[in-house]
Specification:
Keywords: ATP-binding, Chaperone, Cytoplasm, Nucleotide-binding, Stress response. Homodimer. The chain has 18 helices and 20 strands. The protein is an alpha+beta fold. The protein has a nine-stranded mixed beta sheet with strand order 1-6-5-4-7-3-2-8-9. β2 and β3 (75-80) form a beta hairpin. α4 (100-112) runs antiparallel to α5 (116-123), α9 (337-360) crosses α10 and α9 packs parallel to α12. Bound molecules: adenosine-5'-diphosphate and magnesium ion. The site of magnesium ion has 5 residues, from α2.
Length: 553
């Protein structure tokens, strides 16, 4: 297989490969996780295709991933009996950048200026990470159900070749990745090292993984490919969950919350979901979808079933349904009323588990809120049915809370005498909001004011929500209505609005500013400052006005 035409990698691949070859990333072990995850994906895709077309798997239906060590030749081989790749698929998949994480990695790379090591750790970079340990990589693949096999080869230096190979030289079905290890990669011919890495990184991949010590040795199983989510919770340790999360989601952090449910009754499904402890890089990308995979009776169907609403897009994991039909198309599954019921149920479960975490562990929940609160609040605009639950989950900084977070329950529990509204001030920066003169009169009365500094805040508050019967009211809008609420320091009585000094001053300001303002009036809002601007009761809040103006509306 030596006279294949040579093709150039897409420019961004060449750049990435250069980085891999000269890798400064110390944790090279991740290449194994990436290759194993590709092999497992290929097995799962085949399992799905074989439902409609059982001929694809024939007698050999059991998925398997086998690693073969050849210490003498300094070679490590990974073989799967998955779906395989045709010639055009090889060229497309291994000549361009498909992996969304890899794409994002490349985008960040220029900005990060030389900190690629740290970035690789955050993103994981798919197939090309093989070049961290190999000076040459061969990929020999036979697409399931076809009678031809192809070999892709590259030394990672700008070009690759694709050549036909004899069927006898190729796997009967699936893909063999041969790593010709570099000096740095030598250690990956040690069986025990491989075994440990596989258990750590890929211990819960739903395809069994075996190792052969030598090319002619018998394989021994390292992991059994049992689906973690089907096991009873009592048999699963926290470590198992973390390992699963890391290998399934390609993450490196420890989940902040693990949700594992076997639902029975109207819908029967298993849910295994994780709230990450680190913010995903594309959290605010409007294209980002939910990250909950859909399985049916352990067969992977799609990661695009939008199981949870957009405001839960930070949650990772999977749902495995026992009720959905397997023998229909993905599209039909997506539209099934059973799936609609599962979506609803899963969303409710996740919110319920967040509530439980909040009740159980303030600090842990505060961290979740700090990372994902701004996303959860989008639900206040989109999901009216769950608005109450979401308001219950919401946490706020207030003018008096310092670094701490307040719930609305706390807020409403500490209302001042005669206080009938939940007051807020919206803007870009919590510290600046806290210093606003609009707060003076509130502070003097011991009234808490929520500091709303996420851009989504200006929207949901205008939709007229209330919490336990208390409406939300902007302190920068309309009359402040504070007269009925006593000052904390009773020694400074409020100046009467009708005192001549006040009415004369107002008249003066009105004639001076003329048409520039709609009204000028005395207010209980201020104690130290002389004046402040407020929006009218009927119009938009000032912050929303600003956002809309900057969006050109
Ligand atoms: P990702 O797995 O996120 O798509 P990778 O860089 O890991 O990105 O892999 C690129 C593509 O190469 C995969 O999407 C898949 O189409 C193909 N591929 C890689 N390894 C295999 C394999 N063992 N079997 C079949 N296809 C594979
Ligand atoms: Mg991959």
């Amino acid at each position: 297989a030596s006279h294949g035409e040579s093709r150039a990698f897409a420019a961004d691949v060449a750049k990435l490969l250069h980085l891999m070859v000269h890798s400064v990333y110390s944790d090279r072990d991740v290449f194994l996780r990436e290759l194993i995850s590709n092999a497992a994906d290929a097995c799962e895709r085949l399992r799905y295709e074989a439902i409609a077309n059982p001929g694809l798997v024939g007698d050999d239906a059991k998925p398997a991933i086998t690693l073969t060590v050849d210490a003498e030749a300094n070679r490590l081989t990974l073989e799967d009996n998955g779906i395989g790749m045709s010639k055009p698929e090889l060229i497309e998949a291994l000549g361009t950048i498909a992996h969304s994480g890899t794409k994002a990695f490349m985008e960040r790379l220029d900005a990060a200026q030389g900190d690629s090591a740290n970035l690789i750790g955050q993103f994981g970079v798919g197939f090309y990470s093989a070049f961290m340990v190999a000076e040459k990589v061969d990929v020999i693949s036979r697409s399931a159900g076809t009678a031809e096999a192809w070999q892709w080869s590259s030394d990672g230096k700008g070009t690759f070749t694709v050549t036909p190979v004899e069927l006898a030289e190729a796997p009967a079905r699936g893909t063999r990745v041969v790593l010709h290890l570099s000096e740095d990669g030598k250690a990956y011919t040690e069986r025990f090292k491989l075994q440990r890495i596989i258990k750590d990184q890929s211990g819960h991949v739903p395809v069994p993984i075996s190792i052969k010590d030598k090319p002619d040795a018998e394989p021994t199983e390292v992991t059994d490919g049992a689906a973690l989510w089907t096991k009873p919770k009592s048999e699963i340790t926290a470590e198992d969950y973390t390992d699963f999360y890391r290998s399934a989601a390609g993450q490196f952090d420890t989940p902040a919350l693990t949700i594992h449910v076997h639902a029975e009754g109207r819908q029967e499904y298993s849910l295994l979901a994780f709230v990450p402890s680190a913010k995903p890089f594309d959290l605010s990308d409007p294209e980002r979808k939910g990250r909950i995979k859909l399985y049916v009776k352990r067969v992977f169907i799609t990661d695009d079933a939008e199981i949870v609403p957009r405001y839960l897009r930070f949650v990772r994991g999977l749902v495995d349904s026992a009720d959905l039909p397997l023998n229909v198309s993905r599209e039909m599954i997506q539209e099934s009323p059973i799936l609609a019921a599962i979506r609803k149920s899963v969303t409710g479960r996740i919110l319920g588990e967040l509530e439980k975490l909040a009740a159980r562990d303030d600090n842990a929940y505060a961290e979740v809120w700090a990372n994902f609160g701004a996303v959860l609040k989008e639900g206040l605009c989109e999901d009216f049915e769950r608005r109450e639950a979401l308001l219950g989950l919401a946490r706020f900084k207030t003018a008096a809370s310092g670094e701490g977070w307040r719930s609305l329950k706390d807020y409403v529990g500490a209302l001042r005498e005669n206080q009938t509204a939940i007051y807020y001030i919206a803007g870009e920066d919590a510290a600046r909001l806290a210093a606003s003169p609009h707060l003076e009169g509130f502070r003097a009365r011991g009234i808490e004011v929520l500091l709303l500094s996420d851009s989504v805040d200006s929207f949901w508050v205008t939709l007229g929500p209330d919490f336990e019967g208390k409406p939300f009211k902007s302190v920068t809008q309309g009359a402040a209505d504070l007269a009925a609420i006593p000052l904390l320091d009773a020694a400074t009585p409020p100046v009467s609005d009708t005192a001549p000094a006040v009415t004369d001053f107002i008249a003066f300001v009105k004639t001076t500013l003329g048409e520039e303002v709609a009204d000028v009036r005395a207010s209980d809002r201020l104690t130290d400052s002389a004046v402040c601007l407020v929006a009218s009761e009927a119009g938009l809040d000032r912050q929303l006005e600003k956002i809309l103006a900057s969006a050109g509306r």
